[in-house]
Amino acid sequence: MSVLSAILLLLLVTICCRVKATTTTKRPNIIIILADDMGFDDVSFRGGREFLTPNIDALAYHGRILDNLYAPAMCTPSRGALLSGRYPAHTGTQHFVISNEEPWGLTLNATLMPEIFKEAGYSTNLIGKWHLGFASPEYTPTRRGFDYHYGYWGAYIDYYQRRSQMPVANYSMGYDFRRNMDLECQNRGVYITDLLTQEAEHVIREKAAANETFFLMLSHLATHTANDNDPLQAPEEEIRKFAYIKDPRRRKYAAMVAKLDQSVGRIITTLAQTEQLENSIVIFYSDNGAPSVGQFANTGSNWPLRGQKNTPWEGGIRVAGAIWSTQLQARGNKFTQPIYVADWLPTLAHAAGIDLPESSLQLDGLDLWPQLAGSKDAAHVPREILHALDDVWHVSSMLLGHWKYINGTTASGTYDQVLTYRELDDLDPRNSRYVVEVRNSPASRALAHFDLQRLGQQKITSLRHSASVRCGNLQRGCNPLVEECLYDIAADPCEQNNLIYSKQHEAVLMALRKRLQEFRLSALPPGNRPSMRQSDPSLHECTWDNFLVKQPGIVPLECDYHGLPCE
Ligand SMILES: *[C@@H]1O[C@H](CO)[C@@H](O)[C@H](O)[C@H]1NC(C)=O
Ligand SMILES: *[C@@H]1O[C@H](CO)[C@@H](O)[C@H](O)[C@H]1NC(C)=O
Ligand SMILES: *[C@@H]1O[C@H](CO)[C@@H](O)[C@H](O)[C@H]1NC(C)=O
Ligand SMILES: *[C@@H]1O[C@H](CO)[C@@H](O)[C@H](O)[C@H]1NC(C)=O
After folding, report:
1. Gene3D superfamilies recorded for this chain (predicted)?
2. 44 - beta bridge partners?
3. CB under 8 Å to 202, separation ≥6 — which residues?
4. Position 24 pLDDT exceeds 80
5. 0.90 exceeded by the pTM?
6. For residues 97 and 78, what is the distance between their CA atoms, to the nearest angstrom?
């Protein structure tokens, strides 16, 4: 046998066995349910009693509470980090977000999670929000690895009419809802949280019938605000259930969260009905902290954490989240290892048995599947997380071990305090039978089937108690506009004791400063581009379209509430 044929034979054997490995073991379905701008404390598994989220709580109690899940503080960087496995500073998304009228997107040379799963034989589906660019078609979801997209390209839309007006300059109202590349008119007027859920259920049933393994990202509009003239929207009958909440805005928000919670229950139920739950990994989390006040304020609560969306404080970046899968050996506990949204790509690839060409992907995320799936007490992986590196607004922040560093802040420090509190007067009447509510939720009914031990009252109560964050007292404040801040975030989750001046912490401070400078050298310039007149929906038949390639109209149309397509 010649050397050449030996090599060929070797190749054949390798190819044969690879293919074999992929077809004989059924890979898990991946379902990521993403909330938009939902607060850290707007899930009742952390102990809040103003309104309940029994389905999300069931996911957390039957699975694992992601106690230290971190995300960038805004939509575009958070979604970019999830899908690319890289820091926003490494994809040009480290500054603010992509506003609809701006001609840019997530760098095209990043390989995205749906491309990787598609390559491995998965059906890849995005239902809902994209927000990673649409100025030209190559930025849009179906050109970036998703086989199917049903939803919107931009930052947000109206919950019924699917149109949006950007809060800048004088761009017109535009319609933003598509099935793949085509405008989608059907079911206009249906409440979007229900509509997106229904579409996700349809996809789940379709994949079950076709015996296809799938990756599904259900990227909700809830609980982001809609347009300025009517920011908080929920069906009247849902709002009525929260009549005991005095603040009418918070009452609507509670209804928006309730719809989102029902969505989680419906998805899990559909997975169970199609006998796919056992072979699925289900993750729920919010893309960033809630904007309690200011732009896009939705009344969401990050209590007791400081700050909110678009700030470097824990309220912006430590998000509510949970995971469930039969592959998790230990369930019904808190996963306390810090985990960052860019970790999902390598972590879920591992769970799916996909080998990653790590060098070409240049991942920042870590594979934490062994820790997640492993026993309860698996050792923490010591790690760093680059939380922010925005040299336009001069905000940088990172975690090294349990040390958190902040230098600079947003909005001149307006949102640096604790902006919310726990409402003790408006209590959900269901709270008195909380355990029953959780156990009777559709999610719990489906998940209980796979429990290692029955989820008892005591277990629920103690998990709920242990997931509450408790703050110490304010010891030494910090103003990041004029000084650097250093916190022992494990001991001081509420950022109340600035340790920067203590000699004892000099070494860790030097290490943090040094790492930040190193990240500056590897950062891409921010991809932000100035607004472009030719993007105006009035020049594109009143839609948000691929304005870099589509010929704009000559005469702007009237795009008020009635001039839009699909009327
Ligand atoms: C990705 O594209 C940017 C420009 O958008 C470039 O600066 C960067 O070097 C590229 N990175 C890789 C790995 O090709
Ligand atoms: C919006 O403002 C810009 C400049 O301020 C102007 O050139 C443009 O004509 C305006 N567009 C509309 C639709 O009013
Ligand atoms: C579904 O696909 C798997 C391989 O992915 C195969 O083992 C199984 O037999 C298929 N089931 C049906 C009902 O076709
Ligand atoms: C902290 O912020 C100041 C002001 O923006 C800047 O000059 C300095 O380089 C920053 N330090 C680090 C370590 O990023």
Report:
1. 3.30.1120.10, Alkaline Phosphatase, subunit A
2. none
3. none
4. no
5. yes
6. 10
